[in-house]
Each structure stands twice: as structure tokens, then as C-alpha cells.
Write a structure and sequence with these properties.
This protein is of the alpha+beta class. The chain is built from five helices and four strands. A four-stranded antiparallel β-sheet has the order 2-3-1-4.
């Protein structure tokens, strides 16, 4: 699907605030409400807009520690990758999992209540995945940029 300038405007605005009304969106992009809604639905149907969600303040909901974890597997093969992915997808505190190149095989983003709960999670769940060889944790001290709006 080709994305034109109007689609880009729609995507920018919905990324910044997905709670805006169709009437407001249509006024901002210069179309009437019906074609605006049709464009949004087309973007959803094509999978360009894959969902809507609320952005939470992690510290206010008791998730005060965020980390990146570099994971190396015992052997980098399809069987171990599938074992690892099957198990890691069941760990709710792992909010991102990326297959990467370089030193490790995967990088995870993990949120937890505190250091003790993070340590328990790593010892009881992540390091117990049989395909896992090593873990390297990097605790996030401060975040200076966390842009959820994709450049278009």
C-alpha cells in the first residue's frame, strides 16, 4: 500500500494521541469525516496501524526497575531459538524480545518492581530456560528519550 502525505498526517496524529475523534482528525488533515474514517480503516486493515494502547507510567504502577538483558544461547540453532522463544513469551515481565546480531543472540527489555524481584525473575525463569547459556544485565538508570512516535 502506498502511503501519501494525508496518510502520513493521519499516522503522525494518531501516534501522538490515538484518542482524538474522527471529526477532529478530519478537520486537521483537511478531509471530511467519512473519507478520513475510510483512510484510517484502510491503514488498520493493511496492518500499518497494528493497534492502539495506553502508555503507562511504569513507576506509578510499581514497576520501578527496567533493564536490558543480552542473552546468549548454548547453540544458535532453530531448536534452541524455538525453545527460548516459547519460554520467554510466557514471562510477562519481558516486554520486548529482539533477535539480534553481534555478541549475543537476543536482547530483552524487562520491567520489574525492584532489584530483588528482578533478580528472582532472572534466577527462577530466564536463566532456567534450558537453551540459555549466559545473560548480561544492563539496568536503565535514566531515560532521556523514549519516543513512541515513528518518523514518517
Amino acid at each position: 500500500m502506498k502511503i501519501d502525505n494525508i496518510d502520513r498526517k493521519i499516522l503522525r496524529m494518531l501516534q501522538e494521541n490515538s484518542k482524538i475523534t474522527n471529526a477532529y482528525l478530519s478537520k486537521q488533515i483537511g478531509l471530511s469525516p467519512a473519507p478520513t474514517l475510510e483512510r484510517v480503516r484502510k491503514l488498520e486493515k493493511k496492518g500499518i496501524i497494528s493497534g492502539y494502547h495506553a502508555q503507562l507510567n511504569l513507576s506509578k504502577i510499581g514497576l520501578g526497575v527496567s533493564t536490558f538483558v543480552l542473552v546468549s544461547l548454548k547453540e544458535h540453532n532453530k531448536k534452541n531459538i524455538n525453545i527460548f522463544l516459547d519460554k520467554i513469551n510466557k514471562v510477562n515481565n519481558v516486554i520486548e524480545c529482539h533477535h539480534i546480531t553481534g555478541t549475543g543472540d537476543f536482547i530483552l527489555k524487562v520491567v520489574s518492581e525492584n532489584i530483588a524481584s528482578y533478580q528472582k525473575l532472572m534466577l527462577d525463569k530466564v536463566s532456567e530456560i534450558e537453551a540459555t547459556d549466559s545473560l548480561q544485565s544492563m539496568v536503565i538508570l535514566s531515560t532521556f528519550k523514549d519516543n513512541k512516535v515513528m518518523p514518517l
